[in-house]
């Protein structure tokens, strides 16, 4: 379920402050705020978004505006489906 439109978007004020202070410089901003919405001021900025284990670099483009920062740093890694026991027997022969 999404947030009500009349409440507006959520964006951490510290992120906005950091982007505005370092706008002309190529600075990478480290953040743990995965729930912050990407606003047009963030275009062209690189964020290091925490995924629970490490920080993943996310370069913001126009297509990302309106999405959350956490959508671009996955927290789980899919390593494939496990082989069932009866399939293991067939493979060994």
TrEMBL record:
<dbReference type="GO" id="GO:0019843">
    <property type="term" value="F:rRNA binding"/>
</dbReference>
<keyword id="KW-0687">Ribonucleoprotein</keyword>
<dbReference type="GO" id="GO:0000028">
    <property type="term" value="P:ribosomal small subunit assembly"/>
</dbReference>
<dbReference type="Pfam" id="PF00203">
    <property type="entry name" value="Ribosomal_S19"/>
</dbReference>
<dbReference type="InterPro" id="IPR020934">
    <property type="entry name" value="Ribosomal_uS19_CS"/>
</dbReference>
<comment type="function">
    <text>Protein S19 forms a complex with S13 that binds strongly to the 16S ribosomal RNA.</text>
</comment>
<dbReference type="GO" id="GO:0003735">
    <property type="term" value="F:structural constituent of ribosome"/>
</dbReference>
<dbReference type="InterPro" id="IPR023575">
    <property type="entry name" value="Ribosomal_uS19_SF"/>
</dbReference>
<dbReference type="GO" id="GO:0006412">
    <property type="term" value="P:translation"/>
</dbReference>
<keyword id="KW-0699">rRNA-binding</keyword>
<comment type="similarity">
    <text>Belongs to the universal ribosomal protein uS19 family.</text>
</comment>
<dbReference type="InterPro" id="IPR002222">
    <property type="entry name" value="Ribosomal_uS19"/>
</dbReference>
<dbReference type="GO" id="GO:0005737">
    <property type="term" value="C:cytoplasm"/>
</dbReference>
<dbReference type="InterPro" id="IPR005732">
    <property type="entry name" value="Ribosomal_uS19_bac-type"/>
</dbReference>
<keyword id="KW-0694">RNA-binding</keyword>
<dbReference type="GO" id="GO:0015935">
    <property type="term" value="C:small ribosomal subunit"/>
</dbReference>
<protein>
    <recommendedName>
        <fullName>Small ribosomal subunit protein uS19</fullName>
    </recommendedName>
</protein>
<keyword id="KW-0689">Ribosomal protein</keyword>
